Amino acid sequence: MRTLFIEDRNEIDQIIRACKTCYVAVSDQGTPYVLPLNFGYDGKSVILHSAQHGRLWDSLQKNPKVCINWTLGEELAWQDVRVGCSYRVKSKSVLVEGTVEFVNDYDQKVSCLEATMAQYDSERQFKFSKPSVMNVGIMKVHIDKITAKEFGAKAVTPWSQDKE
């Protein structure tokens, strides 16, 4: 089993869109920590939301750099059931490194909330009350770097292609 880089941006976008949670790593005065968050995604940026106070918000005010992970798949696989080092979890993973922009404009906040809800239900139109929009903290993560890998992939050899 191999680890392969995923280069196709369409496949990367499909992995992100298939996930319901992303894991956001921030650094709080040199101490990193990770939070699971809901998100929106438009292909160029990742939309996050939270309260406008607390550890996440305060940390990002000081250091707007983040790393975001999405992982899809948890199937256990092995090459030899008796050899521990041959075990793998078959999955696909995307990493984004980016910079947070805080969104304060009311209409932009609504647009970001719509993008977030579209991640979970693209069929429905949602309404947002003015107090909800005003009180939510919206962070747009501009993607500086995006990478993806597939773990536990079958090794493709000239003789294995004939059998499939």
Explain this structure to me?
It is a single chain. By secondary structure, the protein is an alpha+beta fold. It has a single domain, classed as Electron Transport, Fmn-binding Protein, Chain A (Pnp Oxidase, Chain A, Roll). About 25% of the residues lie in helices and about 45% in strands. Strands 1, 2, 3, 4, 5, 6, 7 and 8 form an eight-stranded antiparallel sheet that branches. The protein is globular and about 60 Å long. The mean pLDDT is about 85. This is Nitroimidazol reductase NimA-like FMN-containing flavoprotein (Pyridoxamine 5'-phosphate oxidase superfamily). InterPro entries: Pyridox_Oxase-rel, Split_barrel_FMN-bd.
Notable features of this structure?
164 residues; alpha+beta; 8-stranded antiparallel beta sheet; 5 helices; globular; Pyridox_Oxase-rel; Split_barrel_FMN-bd; Nitroimidazol reductase NimA-like FMN-containing flavoprotein (Pyridoxamine 5'-phosphate oxidase superfamily)
CATH superfamily: Electron Transport, Fmn-binding Protein, Chain A
Q: How many strands? A: 8
Helix-and-strand structural type: alpha+beta
> What CATH architecture do you see?
Roll
Name of the CATH first level:
Mainly Beta
Oligomer status: single chain
End-to-end separation in angstroms reads 16 Å
Q: Give the low-pLDDT segments.
A: none
The overall pLDDT average reads 87
Shape: globular
Which strand-content bin applies to the residues? over 45%
Q: Which sheet architecture does the biggest sheet show?
A: 8 strands, antiparallel
Helix percentage: 25-40%
Mind telling me the C-alpha Rg? Answer: 19 Å
InterPro entries: Pyridox_Oxase-rel, Split_barrel_FMN-bd
Pfam families: Pyridox_ox_2
Protein name: Nitroimidazol reductase NimA-like FMN-containing flavoprotein (Pyridoxamine 5'-phosphate oxidase superfamily)
